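WARN retry 2 of 3 for item q-0093 after timeout on previous attempt; input resubmitted unchanged.
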Amino acid sequence: MSTRSLAIASLIGLSLLAGCQAQRNLNLVREMGDRSYARGEYDAALTDYQEFVARKPDGVEVRYSMANTYLKLNQPQLAREQFYQCLAVKPENEDYAGGLAEALLACNEREELITFLTREARDRGRSGDYLRLGRYQFQLGNVDEAKLAMITAAKLDGGKSIKPHVELANLYRTLGDKPSELRRLRMALFIEPKNTDLQKRIRDLGEVPGPSFVLQPE
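OK item q-0093 returned
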């Protein structure tokens, strides 16, 4: 082979090598991570998310995906760290707050969990924050505190949605308190009188969900 041919072959080889070593497009990295996560291939997803975050540390949505992947891989301490970083960027994001709560629970950081959720609820004053606080209080066995948080959530909601009333009804059902469960279902039905799920649930409890059965939310 001539010297010129050898030089051309060498250049082609170097070009191919450079192409193999080139970094993947970040959108592709994220897409591949999402695909792996959807298939339940969490180790593969984590590798892609880690690459993305290493190259783009301010990619908070992918950092959130990485945190959820750590939870799936039973590494809640690492998930906790990532959720905290997400909240530092977007402190109002409810998904990030919910993720951190899950990580703290998985870490068995009970005191830190309740402190975080209580601070979120008091500082934000949002119905959703009090509902979240109530759910975790109940999971931790703090029934009275759970009721208080959920009732506060219902009051803050001001009758706009059925969610706090349904969650209270669920709590009362777990406790075997049928009158209180029905009372909250009546309030929910006032907000959504045509909701067939509510109507069925009320019938299952032996009542007739007619127009006179509804109760204006507190």
